[in-house]
Automatic annotation (TrEMBL), chain A:
Composition bias type Low complexity, residue spans: 434-453
Biased composition (Basic and acidic residues): 206-215, 353-364
Subunit and interaction comment: Component of ORC, a complex composed of at least 6 subunits: ORC1, ORC2, ORC3, ORC4, ORC5 and ORC6. ORC is regulated in a cell-cycle dependent manner. It is sequentially assembled at the exit from anaphase of mitosis and disassembled as cells enter S phase. Interacts with CDC6 and KAT7/HBO1. Interacts with LRWD1 predominantly during the G1 phase and with less affinity during mitosis, when phosphorylated.
Stretches assigned to the BAH domain: 45-170
Chain spans, region Disordered: 178-306, 353-480
Protein name: Origin recognition complex subunit 1
BP term (GO), one: mitotic DNA replication checkpoint signaling
SUPFAM superfamilies to which the protein is assigned, alphabetical: P-loop containing nucleoside triphosphate hydrolases
Superkingdom field: Eukaryota
Gene3D superfamilies, sorted: 1.10.8.60, 2.30.30.490, P-loop containing nucleotide triphosphate hydrolases
GO molecular function: ATP binding; ATP hydrolysis activity; chromatin binding; DNA replication origin binding; metal ion binding
Automatic annotation (TrEMBL), chain B:
General function of this protein: Component of the origin recognition complex (ORC) that binds origins of replication. DNA-binding is ATP-dependent. The specific DNA sequences that define origins of replication have not been identified yet. ORC is required to assemble the pre-replication complex necessary to initiate DNA replication. Binds histone H3 and H4 trimethylation marks H3K9me3, H3K27me3 and H4K20me3.
InterPro entries with a match to the protein in the record: AAA+_ATPase, AAA_16, ORC4, ORC4_C, P-loop_NTPase
GO biological process: DNA replication initiation; polar body extrusion after meiotic divisions; protein polymerization
Name this polypeptide is given: Origin recognition complex subunit 4
Keywords from the UniProt entry: ATP-binding, DNA replication, DNA-binding, Nucleotide-binding, Nucleus
PANTHER family, per the entry: ORIGIN RECOGNITION COMPLEX SUBUNIT 4
Protein family (similarity comment): Belongs to the ORC4 family.
UniProt main location, coarse: nucleus
Origin species: Cebus imitator
GO cellular component: chromosome, telomeric region; cytosol; nuclear origin of replication recognition complex; nucleolus; nucleoplasm
Domain AAA+ ATPase span(s) in chain numbering: 59-202
Nucleotide-binding recorded as keyword: yes
Places the protein is found: Nucleus
């Protein structure tokens, strides 16, 4: 066996090389390189992240081997140098009972990739002895037994505590890359043998014995007592985790040029917690130098690494990073998005691990960590994991299944870095979704809603807290339309949203352009949209937003957040703040507090955020005496940093002039849009487009409805309702079930009449004789006096006279009064409320001609 | 012997009659969904088809049932709901929310009631928690979450719909109609109202969202059908325990409906109002005259009941007045004739009365002025006269302007029937110049 020159006798000094990189999220410093100086000897060994290293163990002859993933300083005082590694195992470190599983005699310098996630991967950096060369062998190669260089180690299989497996191709590819320029490592097997050896120990004994067993199994190590290397511990969890993340990013980046980017991974892996910018940077680096392929990978990785700190500094800010994206050709755009997304994943996953880390200073934890695959997880971490999982699932949908599998495990394992990160990033759960692109978020919203809401919803203890608003679902399945008419009816329902809105192309384009330009310019603005009800204002805006969201998903426009409020769905105008805030951030607050928070958010925020698109429907109901609500809504977009686009919808065209103060209407600006009522041609087109390829209507029937509605209001809703009713009438009229009904002009006519005809005349015709007589008396009295109003007494005398003429029995005053109030209650007459005496004043609510016409008929 | 037999007969009758009265009173006073629908078959079909489409296909709808009071709107909807619920498994598949504009006088109360009836998750026991705004957003959120195929349809029945239109901003109506026109939980909004101008009450954006389906109930039956209804309403059901008595009773009802005098009564009633409630009132009054000794309803009973129904309430009050008060009313009548409905005050009335008394001192006692004043105030309390303006404390009561709330014909008719009316007074009533 090789005798490594790493003795206790020679003191070594460890120092960082290069500038520290402050990990924003985790609040501690990471390094790229470390310098090991041996006392008395002038040589310095530089160890870089990504290299394979030897790590001091119990056995000086056979130090542990590992791959260095990250160097960082922890937050203890004075700061200790720590390192994160991925372990390899030597054959002798494998439990004796399992050694036979290899099925052959191991080569002297053969080591195994330790593929066991639940293993401590964080070590004291000062236990690192130096670099070592590790060569990966393809599965078919034979391990060379006699080597000139004793220090070279070979990896061919991986050991996962159960069996040996050939290295997976991805892993292989990844490892071959940095290996050349990198140092070696090796690892103390730590805990893996105890589970095998200790079937029935109590936990307390377990610890002690485990330590013993370690002595016996892997030579006599004195882990706990070692002066310089107090405990070189393995925390393979992280290693495996970051490995996963590599996989993830690898897969997501993947596509044509995987090989080219291989070198990036050594980078990505090591600072696995670092988020996008670094990765983007490395990626861009990789892409900029596509010629450099794996042959010269070594040199490339080298200089890449040297350059990286500076580059990281430069690219740390987001904008340059974005620029790099932009520079790139279209093909790379998608991969990068993918990379960005998946990069989020490890950074979140890191979190629960923190807990581990500190505990891990005790041997017990190590023990526990290795023995029990299910570690105790904090609630919060569980929560986060849930969310992460959901997100991953979503991400997975857009990518291949295989990749999904790869991403998911880390989420489950949920390892992470140090505790302080957790403390310093309390809003992690909230931030998490935000780092993900907005589109993703919006689509995730529904998924996320329940978990985020439930814990947050608190303020009133007496209210039932986690009440989910929900109507119970039906037991019986809803029947699907069977006949042609039923299908037509379903399509004609106003709620059936068509694929596109016919006849509103121009308006659509205008609104789309407006919002898109604001999105692209990162500015804000207001637009006022007016039009009579049923002209498609809200539907068009919804359509625009839908298209923009699609565009944002395809990365054509920057992602944005969409919020919708409706003046009619508020109990009073100030509630609008509450709703906006809740939809924006999920917070609950009182109206005044919400107003403050929103003002703060829109007027004084620094961090660049994505644009918010706010749709305010039924604007006129937000009118208050001071008009402060409208003022605020239109004032926020004028702030440079707000990036708020407000689309205000109301019925009246001149609302800004009529009800708004000058200062409000001036802020609203002059971007106006008016939706004209539909003409009959347009209505016809709308109906046809809905009934596309459904032969349920005669053409004339459609035209009749369209013309009638266009003449009256141009309200598309009315048009659809009439057609729907016409199908019903058609269905009633032909009771033979199998005759395919066609809505004819007669049916539409009937429907139109039913909906538009005034019911007064029918009501008069169907009223009793005395009621009709009373109406006649009113007409007579009006005629006599020449006024349109009469007292009851006057009408009564006329009524009595009329009755006498017609030979009817004399009507008593009470009866006549009852008649009068009956006619008043159905509003054929207008009578003074709460007065029932002779002086009651009576008016007709129908024109006199109508009354005459109705009475004459018989 | 025969007397004993009649006694036992009486006993049987007494038992049966109490049952008859229970059954018929229930029928007249409650709107039971078992009663028949008269002349509303088309409307019924329209409504029940609509409800079925909501329940089975999950199609959202809104409809207004319009008709004068007593035309059977509630009965129609109850019938339709009953039929719907009889469909298998439908009762668990449909949620009903009943609201009444007279009870839910604002949206806040209405929302709580809806939430309570839907039994959403913020309901604890019978209480609904949260503020108005919270309730609204909670309910809207709940309804928004559903979709056509998976959510349980909700049928909203808004009685006295016109009163909901007076709520602030018509928030509730807007939201209900908006849901019914969007792809959310399927709902059917059914409004019951007696106002023909209901659509004019709706704000234009609310109106646009309403589907404009209206079902009109107009009492559009003729007199023959009215007689038929009369007969049916009076007949005992087949499941009546005493078959013999029931047969007799129904036979009697049949006879009554064919009797001329009864038909006249009914015709008069029908002329006044086609409303079935007024028929029920007539039947109720005549039913009350049925006793063990008088077990079957006769035409006389109906006629007397009809008289009761058509009684003039003011004339009844006049019958109970004293002679002095009658004299004052006559004086007022003359003043009205003289000054063409101009208001009068006590002093004028007193002077008129004095003129009469001086001429005919032998027939009417000359009362002191305070006594006449007292009588005048009594008339005011009975609301036979009414001050033109609101009484202000310091104005002298003698000179306060008043108006008479009786018509001339009413006064004359009342005098005809007034018991023990002095002839002089009667003559004075016919003509203010009779003494000439």
């Amino acid at each position: 066996m090789a005798h490594y020159p790493t003795r206790l006798k020679t003191r070594k000094t460890y120092s960082w090389v290069g500038r520290p990189l402050l990990d924003r999220k985790l609040c501690y410093q990471t390094y790229r390189e470390m310098c090991v100086k041996t006392e008395g000897c002038s040589t310095e060994i530089n160890i870089q992240v990504g290299q394979f290293v030897l790590i001091k163990g119990d056995d000086d002859e056979n130090p542990f081997v590992a791959k260095l993933l990250e160097l960082f300083e922890d937050d203890s005082d004075p700061p200790k140098k720590r390192a994160r590694v991925h372990w390899f195992v030597r054959f002798r470190e494998i439990p004796v009972r399992k050694q036979h599983l290899l099925g052959r005699k191991p080569a002297a310098q053969e080591i195994f990739w330790y593929d066991y996630p639940a293993c401590n991967s964080s070590i004291n950096a000062e236990t690192i002895i130096g670099p070592v060369q590790v060569i990966l062998l393809p599965p078919n190669d034979v391990v060379p037994t006699d080597l000139k260089n004793e220090k070279t180690l070979f990896v061919k299989l991986s050991w996962n505590e159960k069996k040996f497996r050939p290295l997976s191709p991805e892993l292989f590819a990844e490892l071959t890359k940095p290996q050349e320029g990198a140092a070696k490592c090796q690892k103390p097997v730590g805990a893996k043998n105890k589970s095998a050896e200790s079937p029935a120990w109590t936990p307390a004994e377990h610890v002690a014995k485990r330590i013993e067993s370690r002595h016996s199994a892997s030579k006599s190590r004195q882990t706990p007592t070692h002066p310089v290397t107090p405990r070189a511990r393995k925390r393979l969890e992280l290693a495996s985790d970051s490995w996963m993340s590599q996989q993830a990013s690898c897969a997501s980046l993947d596509s044509p040029g995987r090989t080219k980017r291989k070198m990036a991974f050594s980078e990505i892996t090591s600072p696995s917690k670092r988020s996008q910018p670094d990765k983007l940077q490395t990626l861009s680096q990789a892409l900029k130098a596509p010629e450099k392929t794996r042959e010269n990978g070594l040199s490339y990785t080298e200089d890449d690494k040297k350059a990286s700190p500076e580059r990281c500094m430069i690219l740390r800010t987001r904008i340059p990073a974005l620029k790099t994206i932009d520079i790139r050709d279209e093909r790379t755009l998608t991969p990068i998005r993918g990379g960005r997304r998946s990069s989020v994943v490890p950074s979140m996953i890191l979190k629960p691990e923190n807990i581990k880390k500190r505990d891990a200073k005790e041997a017990e934890t190590q023990n526990e960590a290795t023995c029990t695959p299910h570690r105790v997880r904090r609630k919060s971490s569980l929560l986060t994991m849930n969310r992460i999982r959901q997100q991953l699932r979503f991400l997975g949908n857009s990518k291949s299944d295989q990749e999904e599998k790869e991403i998911l495990p880390p989420a489950e394992i949920s390892d992470s870095s140090s505790e302080d990160e957790e403390a310093s990033t309390p809003p992690l759960p909230r931030r998490t979704p935000r780092t993900v692109s907005r589109n993703l978020r919006s689509s995730l919203k529904s998924l996320l809603k329940t978990p985020t809401k439930t814990p947050k919803k608190s303020p009133k203890p007496r209210t039932p807290r986690c009440a989910t608003p929900q109507i119970r679902s039906r037991n019986l399945a809803a029947q699907e339309p069977a006949s042609m008419l039923e299908k037509a009816r379903l399509r004609l329902h106003v709620s059936a949203v068509p694929e596109s809105l016919p006849c509103r192309e121009q308006e659509f384009q205008d609104i789309y352009n407006f919002v898109e330009s604001k999105l692209l310019d990162h500015t804000g603005g207001c637009m006022y949209i007016s039009g009579v009800p049923g002209t498609g204002k809200t539907a068009t805006v919804h359509e625009v937003i839908r298209c923009l969201q699609q565009a944002a998903q395809a990365n054509d426009v920057p992602p944005f957040q969409y919020i919708e409020v409706n003046g009619m769905k508020l109990t009073e105008p100030h509630q609008v703040y509450v709703q906006i805030l809740q939809k924006l951030t999920g917070q609950k607050a009182t109206a005044s507090h919400a107003a403050e928070l929103l003002a703060k958010r829109f007027c004084t925020r620094e961090s660049p955020q994505e644009t918010t698109v706010l749709l305010v429907d039924e604007l006129d109901l937000l009118w208050t005496h001071k008009q402060d609500v409208m003022y605020n809504l239109f004032d926020w977009p004028t702030h440079k940093k707000a990036r708020l686009v407000v689309l205000a919808i109301a019925n009246t065209m001149d609302l800004p002039e009529r009800i708004m103060m000058n200062r409000v209407s001036s802020r609203l600006g002059l971007t106006r849009m008016f939706f004209q009522p539909y003409t009959y041609n347009q209505l016809q087109q709308i109906l046809r487009s809905r009934l596309k390829c459904l032969k349920a209507f005669e053409d004339d029937a459609i035209q009749l409805v369209a013309r009638k509605v266009a003449a009256l209001s141009g309200d598309a809703r009315r048009c659809l309702d009439i057609c729907r009713r016409a199908t019903e009438i058609c269905e009633f009229s032909q009771q033979k079930p199998n005759s395919p009904g066609l809505v004819t002009i007669a049916h539409s006519m009937e429907a139109v009449d039913e909906m538009f005809s005034s019911s007064y005349i029918m009501a008069i015709k169907n009223s009793s004789i005395l009621e009709q007589g009373f109406l006649r008396a009113i007409l007579a009295e009006f005629h006599r006096s020449g006024l349109e109003e009469a007292t009851f007494q006057q009408i009564y005398s006329q009524h009595v006279a009329l009755c006498r003429m017609e030979g009817l029995p004399y009507p008593t005053m009470s009866e006549t009064m009852a008649v009068c109030s009956r006619l008043g209650s159905c509003r054929l007459l207008l009578v003074e409320p709460s007065r029932n005496d002779l002086l009651l004043r009576v008016r007709l609510n129908v024109s006199q001609d109508d009354v005459l016409y109705a009475l004459k008929e018989e | 012997m025969s007397s004993r037999k009649s006694k036992s007969n009486n006993l049987i009758h007494a038992e049966c009659l109490s049952q008859v009265q229970r059954i018929l009173r229930e029928r007249f006073c409650h709107q039971s969904p078992h009663s028949n629908l008269f002349g509303a078959q088309v409307q019924y079909k329209h409504l029940s088809e609509l409800l079925k489409r909501t329940a089975i296909h999950g199609e959202s709808n809104s409809v207004l049932i319009i008709g004068p009071r007593g035309s059977g709107k509630t009965m129609l909807i109850n019938h339709a709901l009953k039929e719907l619920m009889e469909i298998e498994e439908m009762s668990e598949n449909v949620l009903q929310v009943h609201l009444n504009g007279l009870l839910q006088i604002n949206d806040k109360i209405a929302l709580k009631e809806i939430t309570r009836q839907l039994n959403l998750e913020n309901v604890v026991g019978d209480k609904v928690f949260g503020s108005f705004a919270e309730n609204l957003s909670f309910l809207l959120e709940a309804l928004k979450k559903g979709d056509r195929t998976s959510s349980c349809p909700v049928i909203f029945i808004l009685d006295e719909f016109d009163l909901f239109a007076h709520h602030k901003n018509q928030t509730l109506l807007y939201n209900l109609f908006d849901i019914s026109q969007s792809a959310q939980t399927p709902i059917a909004v059914i409004g019951l109202t007696c106002r023909l101008d209901i659509l004019e009450l709706l704000e234009k954006r609310v109106k646009s969202r309403f589907s404009h389906r209206q079902i009109h109930l107009m009492n559009s039956f003729g007199f023959p059908q009215y007689v038929k209804i009369f007969k049916e309403q009076l007949s005992l059901p087949a499941e009546f325990p005493e078959k013999l008595f029931a047969e007799k009773w129904n036979e009697n009802a049949q006879c009554l409906s064919e009797e001329r005098s009864v038909q006249e009564v009914l015709q008069k009633h029908f002329n006044i109002s086609k409303n079935l409630r007024s028929l029920h009132m007539l039947l109720m009054l005549s039913l009350n005259r049925v006793t063990a000794s008088h077990p079957f309803m006769t035409a006389v009973d109906l006629m007397e009941a009809s008289q009761l129904c058509s009684m003039d309430s003011k004339a009844n009050i006049v019958h109970g007045l004293s002679v002095l008060e009658i004299c004052l009313i006559i004086a007022m009548k003359h003043l009205n004739d003289l000054y063409e409905e101009e208001p009068f005050n006590f002093q004028m009335v007193y002077n008129e009365f004095q003129k009469f008394v001086q001429r005919k001192a032998h027939s009417v006692y000359n009362f002191e002025k305070p006594v006449v004043m007292k009588a005048f105030e009594h008339l005011q309390q009975l609301e036979l006269i009414k001050p033109v303006e609101k009484t202000s404390g310091n104005s002298q009561r003698e000179y306060q302007l008043m108006k008479l709330l009786l018509d001339n014909t009413q006064i004359m008719n009342a005098l005809q029937k007034y018991p023990n009316c002095p002839t002089d007074v009667r003559q004075w009533a016919t003509s203010s110049l009779s003494w000439l």
